[in-house]
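Following up on my earlier thread - several people asked me to post the actual chain instead of describing it. Fair enough. Here it is, all 205 residues.
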Amino acid sequence: MITAFSWLAENWMEIAGTLSALLYLYLSIRENIWLWPVGFVTSFFYMLIFFQSRLYADMGLQVYYLWVSVYGWFHWMGRRQVAKPETQLETRCLSPRGWLTYLALVLAGSVVLYYALRFVPLWLGLPPSELPLGDAFTTAGGIVATWMLARKILENWLFWVVVNAVSLGMYVYKDLQITAGLFVVYTLMAVVGYYRWKQNLTQTQ
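Reply from S.P.:
Thanks for posting it. Predicted structure:
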């Protein structure tokens, strides 16, 4: 019989990652610069979780998130110091050319990562990725969307809606129930984040 204590002991890392991820999401929607340190902690936990689940591209994505968390902190902080300490970094919107560029990056990244996931684990003597196509797409999409967030581009939230929805299906399949629940919230809150940022941008203009 599984007790509450044993369940917590077995899943503590996923619980900690989920709680920090929810805080990260809240701070992102609020356009609060402290989202980046919280995101760093979240990525560290999930890097370990995805390694254990053999989602290697998602694991590598967390390493990228660690780097972007540092970049996002200094980029947002630097822009605030150029103006006034209390001034938020200005939100930008994608042009048609920007849409094509970022969508092309997601597509190209998905193709490259798919083939990497098919062959690299074999070369390293690791078990193969179980969901190489989905793993590749969510990783490429996450890389692009996180960069857009760091640059404070409004449409990063639309990219996240799609990436989070696909990730949700993967985590249900992998029986990562806590993380799947988190990504239900992520998908819904990405919609909220888009409209919140858009409203703030309209008021600012």
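Confidence is low (pLDDT under 50) at residues 82-87. That should answer part of your original question.
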